[in-house]
Design brief:
The complex is a heterotrimer.
Chain A (H helix, E strand, L loop, with lengths): L1 H17 L5 H19 L4 H25 L2 H7 L2 H6 L5 H35 L7 H25 L4 H16 L1 H10 L3 H13 L9 H6 L5 H27 L5
Helix pairs in contact in A: 1-6, 2-3, 2-6, 3-6, 3-7, 6-7, 6-12, 7-8, 7-12, 9-10
Chain B lengths: L3 H36 L10 H7 L4 H19 L10 H11 L4 H10 L11 H14 L4 H13 L4 H12 L6 H13 L3 H14 L3 H34 L6 H6 L16 E2 L5 E2 L21
Antiparallel strand pairs in B: 1-2
Helix pairs in contact in B: 2-4, 3-4, 4-5, 4-6, 5-6, 5-7, 6-7, 7-8, 7-10, 8-9, 10-11
Chain C lengths: L5 E12 L5 E13 L4 E5 L6 H8 L7 E6 L2 E2 L9 E4 L11 H9 L6 H14 L15 H13 L5 E5 L7 H16 L3 E6 L2 H7 L2 E6 L2 E6 L1 H7 L3 E7 L8 H4 L3 E3 L2 E7 L3 H10 L3 E7 L4 H9 L14
Parallel strand pairs in C: 3-8, 3-9, 6-7, 7-8
Antiparallel strand pairs in C: 1-2, 1-4, 4-5, 9-10, 11-13, 11-14, 12-13
Classes of the chains: A mainly alpha, B mainly alpha, C alpha/beta.
């Protein structure tokens, strides 16, 4: 199986690199440098706090934008550009192609994030001249952000199988936003007396991925420990959702007549 | 070698683009001048509700909290010392910052001082400061500094000595709390307000705060307290002088000549104290230290 | 009798059309024919006839409404069957950020070659299609002809017994077309089956052992190229010379084409002798008389004239 998924993944990664997607790292580096230099002027006593908040937020936003904008084109572009024709003529199953594209984008995001983590570490060191033991929670927070990427990429890939990039972006963003506010939506439903609304909000709460679970930026900034139970629970949550989405995507894509 | 049509377009750009930018800049200045009149009064803080801002943060609460905290510091810093300064927005800004990041200790501590101090130093709202601190203590039960700040607030601004003592006592129960909390609780319970207690509390604040404005305020207050202590001492010595010589001294040097003082005491700004006809010492008018109206007379020394 | 290399069994494909996608347009209707092992088989038809649709059905890019097909005995549902097929899509697009070498290497990874063997094959086939010099150029810089050649390379890289090419000559200049023709003949010599579609009829006439003709989604005929067209011969062609200054006989003048002194006219078979007499009457010199079988091209225009205009032909076995 890896004989077919592997090459597709590597090729997807290669495409991202040659598309100069990794240039966003330059922007991130500039941001971190600027922040490290300026933060001393603006906020005394909370330099580390601000750098960690800014760095993790930037890693999250940059990566999400990449996950969505590349993700929604993963399948669509190959169909539009007809590059898929010669590929599917090889002994590769359609679901293997999907998993390969997914893995390739996830690899791109992971490499990107790894470089950003180094940049963040450099900025932290510049500002504080030391690392603390509690900084491991920063790594956990970054891991959670990667789990978020895995989920959002799977969402984007799913929509890419049957809808245009613009619509796919809207759907993916919409679900992401809903997921971020999942807890609030549920609370609204709980307050209301209307049973229909309660049912709807409950359904939404359980159907849409709850992205709030993955937000550990505040904890990392304050150096609070993140419980290990949350780590494996989030990992399992993400894995289940990704599996769900990839299976659904395969189902949709396997029956699709290519233009 | 450029095409003729491309050369024309390039020239048009070289000439036109800077001109247009200049025109836009001039126009912007006109707009600013026109709107300056009414933006001067209205500060822009569109969202005053912490939960509303949290919705807008799209999950990135922590960073937005830092932004609001930075705004609060700059808001305060830019107004301090200006004529007729008031700090109406300080509470919403601190409120939002701490709603988004309930562990932003530095914001609670800042608010303890500058929300409660009366204008022109602060917003003059000790009630809001108490609310902020109580929220901070609830969200950060391990932080004894906040309990100390609450105790300070009750003691210094609200003169509610029982509540002050209680706050310090609650703080002393937190694991790893330093001894001075317990000591402060006992002192206040015993002696209520005294210059010495005030000095100790403000010294604590100076030493434990990392925020420059807070430390400056602490230093200023400590100097005032020192001046008050000096004055109280000098008044006592002046009374002794009267008892011996039958009239009040005209200056501190007379006290020194009489052997009641070792030298001529100066205030923390370096100016010698002067004596009034009633024998009460006071600061030289030229001194930079000014005892604020509400601190004169000093807190009651009753038991 | 060995099993055919490609077997189409009643392939039918409907496409939904219209705004609500309710109406169906039948683009392939009950298509059935066979391609034998080792033959070069041409798939002919005007644009829009359904040739590409057929090939996409064979490759599993689209799915039949009804009917099925087999390649070397294996159903088109079986993805493993693709190991035995090399496919060149119509107007191929490849990942334009890859170089030719990288492209071939990528596709080669789907077959089980060792790294060394893969490298060897890639070089080999780059050479074979004449792209060895451009191996490290990104495909986005390739001309159409070069892309076509890269496409053929990736189709035959894994030595498949069956090669399916959709319009392999399109976009090529005469030199390029000659090269592709040579490759096809070379493949045939190696004993492979080549199934290719084209609307360039002279190529088909030159290369193919047999052809199938598709128009309007329906199979119009299958057989050797010569066999298909000789049946259509219903006219006689006369080549003659007219002396300078002499006019042509009235009835013939309308239908004759004239270049300098030479003339050509087609007459129906039954009117042949009358025409000859007329010509002798004006002292024309007869150069030749032969059956005027249409070129495939004329046959085509005939076909497009309408389904009622075509005569369905039975298969002529070789």
């Amino acid at each position: 199986m890896s004989a077919t998924v592997g090459p597709v993944a590597i090729n997807t990664f290669r495409e991202a690199v040659r598309d100069r997607v990794l240039y966003n790292l330059v922007l991130f580096a500039l941001l971190m440098i600027g922040a490290a230099i300026l933060v001393g002027e603006i906020s005394i006593g909370i330099e580390r706090l601000v750098i960690i908040n800014l760095g993790l937020t930037a890693i999250s936003i940059f990566g999400l934008v990449m996950a969505i904008f590349i993700g929604v084109g993963l399948v669509y572009k190959e169909i539009e550009k007809r590059t898929l024709y010669s590929l599917l003529a090889k002994p590769i199953r359609r679901w293997q192609f999907l998993v390969g594209k997914y893995a390739g984008l996830l690899l791109t995001l992971t490499v990107n994030t790894a470089f950003m983590t180094l940049g963040l570490a450099a900025a932290l060191f510049y500002v504080g001249r030391h690392f603390e033991r509690s900084d491991t929670s920063i790594l956990v927070a970054i891991y959670f952000i990667l789990l978020e990427f895995a989920l959002v990429t799977a969402l984007a890939l799913f929509f890419s199988c049957f809808s245009s990039p613009m619509l796919s972006t809207l759907y993916t963003l919409g679900i992401y936003m809903t997921g971020v506010f999942a807890n609030d939506i549920r609370t609204i439903g709980d307050f209301t007396r209307n049973p229909a609304l309660l049912a709807v909000t409950r359904a939404v709460y359980y159907l849409v991925p709850n992205f709030h679970n993955f937000n550990a930026i505040a904890a990392a900034a304050h150096g609070s420990a993140i419980p290990f139970s949350l780590v494996w629970q989030n990992t399992l949550y993400a894995a289940l959702y990704v599996a769900l989405l990839l299976i659904a995507a395969s189902a949709v894509f396997s029956g699709r007549n290519l233009k | 070698m450029n095409h003729p049509s491309q050369t024309r377009a390039l020239w048009a750009a070289v000439a036109g683009v800077p001109l247009l930018f200049a025109a836009i800049a001039v126009l912007q200045m006109k707009i600013n001048a026109g709107t300056r009149a009414y933006t001067a009064e209205n500060d822009e803080l569109m969202l005053r509700s912490g939960s509303a801002v949290r919705q807008m943060s799209l999950g990135y609460d922590s960073l937005v909290a830092d932004i609001y905290w930075t705004r609060a510091v700059q808001y305060y810093g830019s107004r301090l010392g200006t004529d007729g300064a008031e700090f109406g927005l300080l509470w919403p800004l601190l409120d939002i910052a701490t709603t988004l990041d309930s562990k932003l200790i530095i914001a609670y501590r800042f608010g303890a001082i500058f929300l409660s101090e009366p204008p022109p130093v602060g917003a003059g709202r000790p009630d809001l400061a108490v609310e902020l601190l109580k929220r901070g203590i609830a969200e950060n039960p391990d932080n004894y500094y906040l309990s100390g700040d609450l105790g300070f607030l009750y003691y210094w601004r609200l003169k509610d000595y029982p509540k002050a003592s209680e706050a310090y006592l609650e703080g002393s129960k937190i694991p790893n709390a330093p001894a001075w909390l317990k000591m402060m609780a006992a002192r206040i319970a015993e002696q209520h307000g005294s210059l010495e207690t005030s000095r100790m509390i403000w010294s604590q604040i100076y030493e434990t705060s990392q925020e420059k404005t807070v430390r400056d305020q602490a230093m200023k207050t400590l100097r005032v307290l020192r001046a008050q202590e000096d004055e109280a001492q000098l008044d006592e010595v002046a009374q002794k002088y009267k008892n011996r010589f039958g009239h009040f001294p005209a200056s501190a040097s007379e006290l020194r000549d009489a052997g009641l003082l070792r030298g001529t005491p100066v205030d923390p700004a370096g100016y010698p104290y002067i004596f009034g006809a009633d024998g009460k010492s006071s600061l030289d008018p030229r001194s930079s230290i000014v005892i604020p109206h509400e601190l004169n007379p000093p807190p009651e020394e009753s038991k | 009798m060995s099993s055919p290399a490609i077997e189409l069994l009643g392939l039918t494909k409907d496409f939904p059309v219209g705004f609500w996608r309710k109406r169906m347009r039948r683009s392939l209707d009950n298509l059935s024919f066979q391609v034998e092992e080792g033959e070069v088989f041409g798939f002919l038809g005007p644009n829009g006839a359904g040739k590409t649709t057929t090939m996409k059905l064979l490759m599993g890019l689209i799915f039949p409404t009804s009917g099925t097909a087999r390649v070397r005995g294996r159903s088109i549902d079986d993805v493993e069957m693709h190991r035995e097929i090399g496919y060149l899509p119509e107007q191929p697009y490849f990942y334009d950020y890859l170089t030719a070498r990288e492209l071939l290497d990528y596709y080669a990874r789907f077959s089980n070659y060792s790294a060394a063997e893969r490298r060897k094959r890639v070089e080999n086939f780059l050479e074979r299609v004449g792209l060895a010099a451009a191996g490290d150029v990104q495909l986005r810089k390739f001309s159409k002809g070069m892309l076509q050649r890269a496409g053929i390379a990736q189709a035959i890289l894994h030595d498949p017994p069956v090669v399916i090419l959709d319009e392999p000559m399109s976009g090529l200049d005469p030199v390029g077309r000659r090269e592709v023709r040579d490759i096809i003949l070379d493949l045939k010599k190696q004993g492979r089956t080549i199934f290719f579609s084209t609307h360039i009829l002279s190529d088909a006439e030159m290369l193919c052992d047999r052809v199938a003709v598709l128009a309007g989604g329906k199979l119009q005929g299958v057989g050797a190229p010569g066999a298909i067209v000789t049946i259509q011969a219903v006219a006689m062609e006369i080549l003659f010379e007219v002396r300078e200054g002499r006019a042509l006989p009235a009835g013939l003048a309308e239908h004759a084409t004239r270049i300098g002194g030479r003339c050509r006219v087609e007459v129906p078979e039954e009117g042949l002798y009358a025409a000859l007499e007329q010509l002798q009457g004006c002292e024309a010199r007869i150069l030749s008389v032969s059956p005027a079988h249409p070129t495939l091209e004329e046959y085509f225009f005939h076909l497009i004239g309408g389904p009622e205009a075509s005569r369905g032909l039975e298969e002529i076995s070789r």
